Amino acid sequence: RDVLKRGRGGGGGGNVEAVVECSALRGINVTESFIIACRSHLFPSRPLLDPSTKRLSFPASQAIRRIFSLFDRDSDSLLSDSELQEYQNKSFDTQLTPQELCYVRDFVNRSSLMG
């Protein structure tokens, strides 16, 4: 509990998102610890979003700019369906279904309308 308090602004650097008491010896919360660790790594809430401004953090903005510089082949500052598919394939070794592609487009459109 003290670790979580220190991690969220009490001098610990603000990098702690969850604390789970576990024991490999007793088999207590071991699986849960790995699940939380994987989730935190795969879906980090920080540094992607600055909670005070509700905007992308500087490192997240840089990462997106880098993605665009690598995959925006026609340099129109937009990722076409084929460019987005190329990014998806190179990054995650899979293709988006037409429905997933539509969802991504809708999400980006809604997000850009909100600021």
Q: What is the oligomeric state here?
A: single chain
Radius of gyration: 19 Å
Overall pLDDT level: 79
- Please count the beta strands (DSSP E, at least 2 residues each): 2
- Outline: elongated
The helicity comes to 40-55%
Task: Describe the structure in your own words.
The chain has helices at residues 2-7, 30-42, 58-71, 81-92, 98-113, and strands at residues 49-50, 55-56. β1 and β2 form a beta hairpin. The protein is built from five helices and two strands; from the N terminus they run ααββααα. It has 115 residues and is mainly α. The radius of gyration is 19 Å and the shape is elongated. Helices cover 53% and strands 3% of the residues. Mean pLDDT is 79; it is low at 7-13. Strands 1-2 form a two-stranded antiparallel ribbon.
What is the topological layout?
Elements: H1 2-7, H2 30-42, E1 49-50, E2 55-56, H3 58-71, H4 81-92, H5 98-113
Antiparallel strand pairs: 1-2
Keywords:
mainly alpha; 115 residues; two-stranded antiparallel sheet; 53% helix; elongated; single chain
What's this, in brief?
By secondary structure, this protein is mainly alpha-helical.
